[in-house]
Queue: 2 jobs
Job 1
Amino acid sequence: MRVYIESTIPSYLVARPPRDLLQAARQQVTRDWWDFKRQEHDLFTSQIALDEIRRGEAEMARQRETILGGIPILAVTEQSRVLTRRIVASRVLPLGAEADAGQIALATIYKMEVLLTWNLRHIANAAIQVPLRKIAAESGLTLPELCTPEELTGELYEEPDEDN
């Protein structure tokens, strides 16, 4: 599949171990997906994601940038700008989430099958996916699946043996 890597993915990959158990589990799922499943997909990212991961502590930013090194960068186009503006104008996303709208627009314009993220507030959120699908369809486009590494693991984890 064609998978757009949003900025939270490299952030989870290099983050220090958190105290929060849910965050620690998400971090491990992300590492497992990255180590064992990413090679099954064609990965893409964007300058928007690169700009986001370059913020913060310099060494962590360098590590995040290294992770995305070699992944093709989708160029911002006039079509993606128009779709970004439509998403922002719809108010489906809150004010200040223009970068998230831009990443959704790029993944849509470039016909990604999946936008991989841990941004559960503005992207992988079922409450906003219906209106985002409508906006994409009105533009003659198909919104990619907006999901987390946990949802894209496939057969990463073995099913329990029913005989035991």
Job 2
Amino acid sequence: MVHFDRNENILEWSSEEFAIPYQSPFDGKTHRYYPDFLVKCRIGQEIKTILIEVKPSKYLKPPNRNRKKTKSYLYEVKEYGRNRAKWEAAKIVCDHKGWRFDVWTEHTIGF
């Protein structure tokens, strides 16, 4: 990603390097989640590792409950639930490793 390549504070980065197991809230089974980026960077005098997921900002909010239960609404509910489960699992892994977990949107990246 050009954003990482051009930033002198980014020491290393990789894309979808490893899997994080998470339990689906819909089928109760364990699935694998591959976060978008793992970045090692310099922040001030410290070296930090950040696990980054990139999603459109509309996926960070729960679907509007007042909508009719159409196929698209049900899909949004399922995706929101699945994303929450993935991100909770990622936060647990990051806390254990001393990393930070971020979800970036078009606003974070500047598009």
